[in-house]
Structure formats: C-alpha cells, structure tokens
C-alpha cells in the first residue's frame, strides 16, 4: 500500500512538472537554445555567460589580495565512449526497422523527418571513444587563459612545478585536458614555438589508488551503492519517458519505445554538443520536453552523485583535505615572507 501511494504521489508530481513546464513554454520562444539544456553534456562556452541573479559577490574584494588559487575542473568536451558508439549504431538499425514498419503498413511517411530515414551514426565504425575532441581542447586552453587574466598577480613568479602544480587522473581525456589548460595558463611564458609556450609538469596517481581525484573508482561501497540505486533511478525517470514517448509516437507515427526516446535524447545531446547540430534529433523534442529530459538527467545525477547520500561526499574528503592543506601552506608562506 505504501509503495502504491508513493507511485501515485510521484505520478502527480511529474504531471505537475509537465503542466508547469508546458505553461512556461506555451508560446514559441525563439531564444530557446537546446545547447544550454544538456545537463553535464553542456559545453563550457555555451553556459559560461548565463547569468545567475542569485549570486551576490562580496563588496569587500577591493580590500583583498589573492595569494593562492585552487581549481578543480572537469575534462573538456569528449567523444562518445565505445559503449555509447555501439548504442548509436544499434539505434540506426532500430530506426530502419521503425521506418520499414510504417512502409509495410502502407502508412504515410509525411510525418517522418527526412533526416531520420537512412540515418547513420556520425561515429559509425570508430573503434575507440571517449577521447578529448578539439572543442574540448579549446575549452580548457581558454579556461587557462581566463584564469591567468583573472589573477595576474598569482602568475608573476618564474615557473616551478612546486609552485604551479597541475594534477590529473590517468584517464586520457582528463590528462589531455590538463595539458590544454596548462598551455593556456603558461602561453607566452616560454620560448617554445611562435606561441611562446613552455614545458610544464602534469602529475597523476595510479587509477587503482587515486583517492584524491578518482575516488569513486577506489570506493567499493560507492560502486555497490550506485548499483543498488539503478532501479530507483529508472523508476523515477519512467513517467517522463512515458509522457514524451506517447507524444512522439502520436506526432511522428513511429512506434517509439522508452528506450528509443532515451537513445534519441542521448543522440540530441551528442549532436548539439559535439557537432552543433540542433535540427535533427533535438528538433523532435519541444522546449518543454527538453527541460523535462534535462530534469531527469539532473535527478539521476543528484541521486547517484549528489549530497543527499553522505557516502557521495565522504569519499571526496581526501580532495577537500588536499585543498585545505594547500591553502594553509600558502597562508604560512605568506606570513613567513611578511615577517
């Protein structure tokens, strides 16, 4: 009885969300950019200028002098992983079946978008995946430049790896991102090439024991927790997928399943983020549906990685300790120089 009551409450919540979002986007919003609504797949450059009116900066910054900087950054935009590449190739075959079924039933093809018929994955045949792409390199390179421009006094000293420490995981896209960031951070500071680059050190721990930056891979309790939560996440996302699947079937006449819609949403995110294509998979979804799908992605991330479960932040304590220790060392060094 309790489970049934929870399910009913959940459905009512989703319906309220659908109504609220439908009202929000009831009129055509030409300013809507799907690339700003891709959850963690959103590009750095697309979202960096979105204003947040809730942020109130300190009024006393003019009285402060920066003496130390810590930055924890994610890798840049990457290609789909091998697993996802296979999923997209399988989805291409699935689309062929859906279109063929419509033809065999002698139904009109007018409602089916032209791009969808005969579609092939842009990553078809790739044997590797997950690597940092050129757009991701550019993101981290310019992040490095912006950091240096924001805190010029912190980068006036001659380079030394103990002063400017760059650490990364051994995941290739992360280490490549660290290199791109360092190239931007130290551009014009050396004598290498026309850009005046200089060599700099990037260090990393073994993936098997990296409790500072790759802590989720070293925590068996987290792996067990994540696996145990997968059914809950799937159940919470179902009402959103059910609603959108129903709408897409009605609108395009193809017998989409919830898994098809999930694959279409993933394809939308990859096309928009990596290829700047927004008039194919993304065009199948209304702004309200995009917002719901992004909400479902955010909900999954909150459950699996958010602060609601103490394990999610407890395993990050070594990283926090490392940050605090570096700050304390910088304070002591500054006090020692003053004295």
UniProtKB/TrEMBL annotation:
Subcellular location: Membrane
Class of this enzyme: hydrolase
UniProt key word Protein biosynthesis: no
InterPro entries in UniProt: His_Pase_clade-2 (IPR000560), His_PPase_superfam (IPR029033)
Signal peptide segment: 1-28
Gene Ontology CC: membrane
Keyword annotations from UniProtKB, A to Z: Hydrolase, Membrane, Signal
Transmembrane segments: none
Gene Ontology MF terms: bisphosphoglycerate 3-phosphatase activity
EC number(s) from the headed UniProt entry: 3.1.3.62, 3.1.3.80
Catalytic activity: 1D-myo-inositol hexakisphosphate + H2O = 1D-myo-inositol 1,2,4,5,6-pentakisphosphate + phosphate; 1D-myo-inositol 1,2,5,6-tetrakisphosphate + H2O = 1D-myo-inositol 1,2,6-trisphosphate + phosphate; (2R)-2,3-bisphosphoglycerate + H2O = (2R)-2-phosphoglycerate + phosphate; 1D-myo-inositol 1,2,4,5,6-pentakisphosphate + H2O = 1D-myo-inositol 1,2,5,6-tetrakisphosphate + phosphate
Entry similarity comment: Belongs to the histidine acid phosphatase family. MINPP1 subfamily.
PANTHER family: MULTIPLE INOSITOL POLYPHOSPHATE PHOSPHATASE 1, MULTIPLE INOSITOL POLYPHOSPHATE PHOSPHATASE-RELATED
Entry protein name: Multiple inositol polyphosphate phosphatase 1
Organism encoding this protein: Solanum tuberosum
């Amino acid at each position: 009885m309790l489970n049934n009551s929870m399910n009913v409450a959940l459905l009512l919540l989703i319906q309220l969300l659908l109504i609220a979002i439908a009202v929000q986007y009831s009129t055509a919003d030409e300013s809507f950019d799907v690339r700003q609504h891709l959850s963690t797949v959103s590009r750095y450059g697309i979202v960096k200028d979105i204003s947040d009116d809730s942020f109130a900066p300190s009024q006393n910054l003019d009285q402060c002098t920066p003496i130390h900087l810590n930055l924890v950054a994610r890798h840049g935009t990457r290609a789909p992983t091998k697993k996802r590449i296979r999923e997209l190739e399988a989805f291409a075959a699935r689309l062929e079946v859906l279109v063929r079924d419509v033809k065999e039933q002698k139904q009109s093809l007018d409602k089916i978008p032209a791009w969808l018929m005969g579609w092939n994955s842009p990553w078809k045949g790739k044997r590797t995946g997950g690597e940092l792409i050129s757009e991701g390199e550019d993101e981290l390179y310019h992040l490095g430049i912006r950091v240096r421009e924001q805190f010029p006094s912190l980068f006036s000293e001659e380079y030394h790896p103990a002063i400017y420490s760059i650490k990364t995981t051994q995941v290739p896209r992360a280490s490549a991102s660290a290199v791109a960031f360092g190239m931007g951070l130290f551009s014009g500071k050396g004598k290498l090439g026309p850009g005046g680059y200089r060599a700099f050190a990037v260090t990393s721990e073994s993936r098997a024991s990296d409790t500072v930056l790759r802590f989720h891979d070293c925590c068996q309790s987290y792996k067990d927790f994540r696996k145990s939560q997968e059914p809950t996440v799937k159940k919470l996302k179902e009402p959103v997928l059910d609603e959108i699947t129903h709408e897409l079937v009605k609108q395009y006449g193809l017998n989409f399943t919830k898994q098809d819609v999930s694959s279409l949403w993933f394809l939308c995110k990859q096309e928009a983020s990596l290829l700047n294509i927004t008039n194919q998979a993304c065009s199948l979804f209304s702004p309200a549906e995009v917002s719901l799908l992004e909400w479902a992605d955010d909900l999954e991330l909150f459950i699996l990685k958010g602060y609601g479960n103490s394990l999610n932040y407890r395993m990050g304590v070594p990283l926090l300790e490392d940050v605090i220790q570096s700050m304390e060392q910088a304070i002591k060094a500054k006090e020692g120089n003053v004295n």
